[in-house]
């Protein structure tokens, strides 16, 4: 376990408002004394076709069953759109800023509702029904939000796929999810570049071949790029959608019906589809956005995450819209066409809540204080950060330069599996502390265990594995098609607890600081990648006998990837460029390593396990503190390895 900030000084930023503190204290008291009543009250944030009479019937034991609001019925799109029509139908639901600074669009709740109904009817016209999986592979355009909501309207399960996945990666996910349709576009605009989408899907569908179940591909015109269309399978979005009716009866879903699947990486095996269900997820999205970010009517909320990640689902789409808040969607890049682009957008659209990842904050910080200072940023009320640990200096920069010392910085810890923030400072209710994700939000019970999974009881200072002792409405229900893997991954480490995979440190007041992943997951610029994924990709190349990937710390990305490769033959060893290409073809360019070292042998234990801890040290040039080597089968591997790495190392 790494403790990166053990010696960090602690600054508490006192912004406590007694009324807010009391409100949150009361919530904590209520949920502790009667959790059923508390969570049923939170269900009241939504409109239900049948209001649930029970909240939580989950069990972390045995076959693990997570169930919330199980006798409730509802439709997500009704909650995000229809119920706002009467009193705020003409208020803006979605502000869209295009890649080109001159292009933007605003859709009111009424307009978005009409578009969602049209798409829903179009999907139905293709025979897509409740429970069918629909893959969405779109850039940050209004259509992506409308298509997600259209799936919700007819009870189809959306599977949003990241634009950076390779055709092979997409093909695997299409097969695994059993998707019957894909919604994509011609090509996306990313700053000065055009990123092909339709041809990526065509290539992905070639990979899936006859095992694939995709019958229809809908193509949105985003960039006027000419793409091949396969008659019978491919449909032009405008032609399909524009003539449809603007009314569509919502499908009434059971609370525990699957709402969406979202792929993420684990420490072993292939990417897994995290399952979220309808009622619990939406209560959680509505609750967490409101409690952490005060989703007030008439304010504009901008979370810069791509919709293809959980942050995008919950903090761009469902959380803000369920609360009736305006959400901003930005198609382009942070620093294009000029470095102050984000600040310009905040001023232009009066953004009040701004939420991004530490990797972006570090990049903005590197650009200097001048750029944000040249903008007003007066509309900002609160700032959020999530996705990776934020260092105290980046936190303070964000607070002082962007937030002008008037906006709290809210560091939230969450995961694809948790669907929304679990640990978060609540502005006004407690002092803020740079570098600390602070405490569980009301209703969340974090705990720490030792490496054996035994709880480090109490609230005193401790360091260990971050677990949760009770369920919450947004908790993932399963891994699609592999409930056994689900039980093993999250519930076998500590009996009766959900294990997050992260390490954390607790101070005497119960504040928590995340120390990073404890498993073989690397967090590159907020993208979660399993070492096994990279190793499997590299090992498919015939030139490679064996590979091991590790994460090393990286100034901008948080972590970078380093791969150690043993060649099958020393006569024709693979080149670094070739292996990099293999990784980008099999996974995607976001998984590009910082460095690939060709080595003669990997360090292993007597039972044949690769000792990644040692590789991490060697890759980080920390060779004076290699630690205990007694578990190695052959210690002579180590000096040889250090020598080979030294030879190939080029300082950045
Ligand atoms: C992993 C989950 C915000 C959710 C999007 C990422 C790391 C997340 C924090 C934070 C330190 C964080 C953890 C976690 N992480 N938020 N505030 N401080 N680390 O979801 O892709 O499922 O990744 O991101 O390691 O396990 P994800």
Automatic annotation (TrEMBL):
GO MF assignments: acetate-CoA ligase activity
Domain of life: Bacteria
Enzyme class: ligase
SUPFAM superfamilies, sorted: Acetyl-CoA synthetase-like
Residues annotated as domain AMP-binding enzyme C-terminal: 533-609
Keywords: Acetylation, ATP-binding, Ligase, Nucleotide-binding
Coiled coil spans: none
Domain Acetyl-coenzyme A synthetase N-terminal: 28-80
Residue ranges of every copy of the AMP-dependent synthetase/ligase domain listed in the record: 82-469
Enzyme Commission number(s): 6.2.1.1
Gene3D superfamilies to which the protein is assigned, alphabetical: 3.30.300.30, N-terminal domain of ligase-like (3.40.50.12780)
Family: Belongs to the ATP-dependent AMP-binding enzyme family.
NCBIfam families: Ac_CoA_lig_AcsA, PRK00174.1
Protein name: Acetate--CoA ligase
Name of the gene encoding the protein in the UniProt record: acs
């Amino acid at each position: 376990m790494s403790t990166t900030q053990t010696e960090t000084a602690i600054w508490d930023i006192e912004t406590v408002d007694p009324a807010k503190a009391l409100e949150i204290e009361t919530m904590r008291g209520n949920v502790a004394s009667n959790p059923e009543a508390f969570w049923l009250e939170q269900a009241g944030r939504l409109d239900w076709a049948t209001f649930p009479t029970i909240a939580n019937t989950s069990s972390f034991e045995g076959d693990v069953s997570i169930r919330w609001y199980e006798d409730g019925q509802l439709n997500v799109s009704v909650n995000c759109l229809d119920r706002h029509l009467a009193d705020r139908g003409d208020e803006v639901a979605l502000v869209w800023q295009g890649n080109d600074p001159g292009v933007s669009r605003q859709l009111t709740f009424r307009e978005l509702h009409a578009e969602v109904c049209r798409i829903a009817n179009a999907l139905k016209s293709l025979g897509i029904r409740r429970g069918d999986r629909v893959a969405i592979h779109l850039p940050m355009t209004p259509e992506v939000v409308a298509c997600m909501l259209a799936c919700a309207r007819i009870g189809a399960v959306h599977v949003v796929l990241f634009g950076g996945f390779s055709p092979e990666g997409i093909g695997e996910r299409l097969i695994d999810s059993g998707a019957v349709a894909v919604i994509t576009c011609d090509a996306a605009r990313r700053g000065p570049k055009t990123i092909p989408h339709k041809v990526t899907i065509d290539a992905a569908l070639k990979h899936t071949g006859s095992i694939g179940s995709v019958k229809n591909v809908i193509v949105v015109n985003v960039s006027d790029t000419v793409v091949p269309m396969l008659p019978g399978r491919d449909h032009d979005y405008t032609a399909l959608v524009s003539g449809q009716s603007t009314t569509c009866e919502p499908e009434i879903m059971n609370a525990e019906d699957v709402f969406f699947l979202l792929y993420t990486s684990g420490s072993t095996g292939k990417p897994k589809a995290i399952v979220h269900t309808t009622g619990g997820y939406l209560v959680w999205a509505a609750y967490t956005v409101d409690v952490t970010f005060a989703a007030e009517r008439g304010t504009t909320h901008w979370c810069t995450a791509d919709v293809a990640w959980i942050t995008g689902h919950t903090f761009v789409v469902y959380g803000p819209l369920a609360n009736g808040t305006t959400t901003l969607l930005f198609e382009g890049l942070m620093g294009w066409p000029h470095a102050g682009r984000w600040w310009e957008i905040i001023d232009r659209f009066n953004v009040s809540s701004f939420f991004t990842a530490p990797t972006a904050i570090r990049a903005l910080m590197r650009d200097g204080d001048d750029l944000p200072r040249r903008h007003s940023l007066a509309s900002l009320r609160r700032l959020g950060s999530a996705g990776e640990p934020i260092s105290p200096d980046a936190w303070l920069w964000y607070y002082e330069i962007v937030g002008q010392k008037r906006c709290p910085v809210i560091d939230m810890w969450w995961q694809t599996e948790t669907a929304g923030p679990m640990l978060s400072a609540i502005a006004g209710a407690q002092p803020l502390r740079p570098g600390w994700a602070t405490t569980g939000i009301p209703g969340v019970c974090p705990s720490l265990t030792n490496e054996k999974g035994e709880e480090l009881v109490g609230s005193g200072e401790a360091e260990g594995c971050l677990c949760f002792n009770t369920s919450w409405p947004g908790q993932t229900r399963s891994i699609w098609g592999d409930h056994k893997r689900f039980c093993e991954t999250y519930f076998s480490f500590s009996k009766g607890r959900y294990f997050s995979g992260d390490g954390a440190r607790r101070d005497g007041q119960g504040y928590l600081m995340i120390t990073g992943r404890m498993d073989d997951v690397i967090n590159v610029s907020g993208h979660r990648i399993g070492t096994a994924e990279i190793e499997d990709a590299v090992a498919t190349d015939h030139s490679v006998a064996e590979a091991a990937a590790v994460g090393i710390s990286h100034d901008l990305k948080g972590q970078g990837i380093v791969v150690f490769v043993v060649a099958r033959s020393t006569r024709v060893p693979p080149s670094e460029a070739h292996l990099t290409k293999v990784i980008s073809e099999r996974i995607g360019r976001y998984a590009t390593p910082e460095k690939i070292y060709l080595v003669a042998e990997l360090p292993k234990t007597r039972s044949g396990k690769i000792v990644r801890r040692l590789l991490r040290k060697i890759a980080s040039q920390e060779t004076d503190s290699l630690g205990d080597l007694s578990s190695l089968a052959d210690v002579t591997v180590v000096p040889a390895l250090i020598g080979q790495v030294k030879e190939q190392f080029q300082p950045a």
